[in-house]
Specification:
Blueprint: H1 2-13, H2 17-30, H3 35-48, H4 51-65, H5 69-86, H6 91-104, H7 108-121, H8 126-142, H9 149-169
Helix pairs in contact: 1-2, 1-3, 2-3, 3-4, 4-5, 6-7, 7-8, 8-9
Amino acid sequence: MSELADLAEGLRQDGKYSEARETLERCLEQSPRHPRALLLLGRLQYQEGTLLEALQTVRTLESVLGRQESLAVIADGLEQLRQMRNLPPDPEFATQTMAELLVQQGYLLEAIDIYRRLFVSCGGEREVWEKILSLREQLRREGSRDAGREKVARQLAVLDGWIGARQGED
């Protein structure tokens, strides 16, 4: 059994996860409570991103070895990661991230539109306002990907009016 576990660990270290998993499964078929094989399988499952499987494997290992502090810490950490992964993303963070990606790709008109909606929905956050002003200047200089000059000019006029109206509210 130790030879199979050693082979599986070498395969895992080489990034050959599916082969490592098959080897560990063979090992566990022959000895279902083999502690090292269970530990390696849990680590492999974690690396593959299957947190629930990794947690179940660590729980099985706990039943083999008894409750140990180090395993309890690993199990608790896996449970916390699993719960965090299941949380929906913060819409404001997701929206701002999308806008930043659009800026990086040169789609400034689309990014400004997202920032404008974000500004209105977050109650006029100063950081978002400054980003809009900065992008307006960048749009004047560079234009926007896949948008002709006329479209950019029209959208800049609309944006200038929107900014002017907001500045008048202050």
